[in-house]
Amino acid sequence: MSASHQQFSDLDVNQVARNLRHMDDASVAEMVGGSTRGPVLEEVFRRMAEHVDPQKAAGVDVLVRFEIDGAPGGGVDRFDVHFVDGRCVTSREPIGEPVAILRCGPVEFMRMVLGGVSGLTLYEQGTLKVDGDLEAAGSLRSLFAIPG
Questions:
Q1: Which of 28, 39, 76, 111 could tie 117 with a disulfide, CB 3.0–4.6 Å?
Q2: Which domains does the chain have, with CATH numbers?
Q3: Are 107 and 20 spatial neighbours (Cβ–Cβ below 8 Å)?
Q4: Phi/psi class of residue 8: alpha, beta or left (left: φ > 0; alpha: ψ in -120 to 50)?
Q5: Over 60: is that where the pLDDT of 8 sits?
Q6: Is residue 64 within 8 Å of residue 140, measured between CB atoms?
Q7: What pTM was computed for the model?
């Protein structure tokens, strides 16, 4: 594990979520930009498994893909999130064919996953695009205990 990754893995996710809610967009963009982007995103996805509610996810078998734009060179960071058997498995590598692909910027992503704003709000504002099963994408938040 790199020093940067270790730095983020030691953070109190509840405190980060509380702090994020009071940060302006420029500060959030700085947090998830440049050399910290990869480690921050990897840590967020790694921790998803820790925050899934196994009872709510029981019987759910759904695979979604997140595409977060603004990566260096104009690319996107892709992560698959698979809910199966009450668990959440995440991967930078494709796991399979997703039922939905969620596309957004890094600021919107951080606000959505750390509970500052709902995916529905972002979708209605046009800053979250969903290709595929809108209902499956909309149900994701209910499967987690959102930090903060």
A1: 111
A2: 3-143 (3.30.1050.10)
A3: no
A4: alpha
A5: no
A6: yes
A7: 0.85
